[in-house]
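#data-curation
PF: Archiving a pair of folding outputs for the training set. Convention for this channel: one message per protein, sequence first, structure tokens after, nothing in between. First:
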Amino acid sequence: MKTVKDVLEAKGNSQIWSISPNASALEAVKLMDDKNVGALLVIDGEKLVGVIAERDIARRLVLKSRSSRDTIVKDIMTSDLYGVPADTEIEKCLMLMTEKRVRHLPVFENDHLVGVISIGNIVKSVILRQDSLIENLQDYILGKYI
């Protein structure tokens, strides 16, 4: 079974994009756009205190007609955090993401933050694994494994 660590390695980019809880929502949107990511970890000093995602901005800012310049990240971020150890199987991550209705999970190894995975990263990994399995089955059926 593939693990979160495998997904992070396949993803390649180990950069963790984060923002201060006191930054403006506009700064968060600009950083997400600049880095082409759907979420940022919210870090206060050395402590992970939340996640701000596009969904948070849409629901807690745009739909409530709040100003992105005047609203700070900590007022619209998700503070209920669900992180996973790097050795977690990806199927368990999918179950957690589905159950908790989240799309991004911080990843920890030895109590240190080592990355973030998205549901898109996991789906890509599952698709690649399925493609490989299909190819192997086709080769077996066609007698290429003699």
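PF: Second:
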Amino acid sequence: MKTLSRKPFLLMLRDDSGELTEVKLDPALVTSDNALIVLDEYNDTCWVWIGKNVNMPTRMHTLRMARSIQKSGHKVGVTTIGMATSRLVEMMEKDSSDPEVAANIEKFKNLLASNWKFEDEVLAYDEALASHYEA
């Protein structure tokens, strides 16, 4: 994990026909109809989920936005989440028969299923690890 001057967060963004929206981290959103970007400061990773029913323009937009956000982060209030994450993990549901993609999907779903606390409705954090960053 990168050293941050504040506690790390996870942030989920949903791409709805070219419009990125911050949403509360929810494993139930990992469906065939959704395109999601999750900025994961705990694992220094930008996760990209593309459901098999997502149309091509949305799929391309999500991937393009993920690459951009991986470099510059996404601002929530005064906090920029996920700036310069070192890993980009693309998961296309249609490729889930590939062992590497399947393993990444499993890691992604396990990450989302963790017991997260929330700040500002959409910023997820691990309460046990957050105490290391408190002043």
